[in-house]
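We both want to read discrete structure tokens more fluently, so let's practise on a single case. Would you write everything just below, so we can both look at the same thing?
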Amino acid sequence: MRGMFTAGVTDVMMENGITFDGAIGVSAGAAFGCNYKSNQPGRVIRYNTTYCRDPRYAGLRCLIKTGNFYSAEFCYVEIPTKLDLFDEETFVKNPMEFYVVCTDIEKGEVVYHRCGDNENELDWFRASASLPLAAKPVEADGRKLLDGGIIDSVPIQYFESIGYNRNVILLTQPKGFIKEKNKLAPIIRRALKQYPKVADLLEVRHIEYNETLKYIEEREKSGEVLVIRPPEPLGIKHTCRDPEELRRVYNIGRKTGEEMLEQIKAFTTK
């Protein structure tokens, strides 16, 4: 739910007509970021605050019953197709490329998926945001997938490798953050014993993540990327069903986006 910060920033950018040639999202950055390509500012905070306390949306009952803390059917079918429509037509027509990052849990490898007009794109958004223990693996295009952050939480180096050399990076941790080793890795290893590579990846995830942050800081110093971060730790849990708490974090994102708006405009028009 730190992604509420990201939604606040991206809403400010959309409202001010800032466009990009391409974008790539991981986890909530995929599930929420797709609204940039569909040009729907306000949608993320609206449907999350409207339905976060709805038992059909999320909760332990849903986790026990379906294996998913966030309901696959309600969040990724009912809401986007009936209750708060995802503008699929605009998403497809918008020339901005949009990629999502997932983890193939059988092969233990990262998957960078370029979204198009396939009927199963919502499965890819859901897969990228499916945390181990909180969600069942998602099957898409013959792969069993979970959260892309298991391997590549901030895919700047991949995006540069395919030609995007001037990037705005949205992080949800403040400057100086250092990721600790995942304490749940042993539990995840037992829970996903049929997919041992997932736990192996989580054992070293913090190392890879911290190395990526160092790389980003180097690129930031040289002026080749613009990094947008919260000014302090957001203090929100991975799962949150309090609409006021969601809006609090969203508003931090809005304020940060507004304060950096001229800087963003200058960077994206060079």
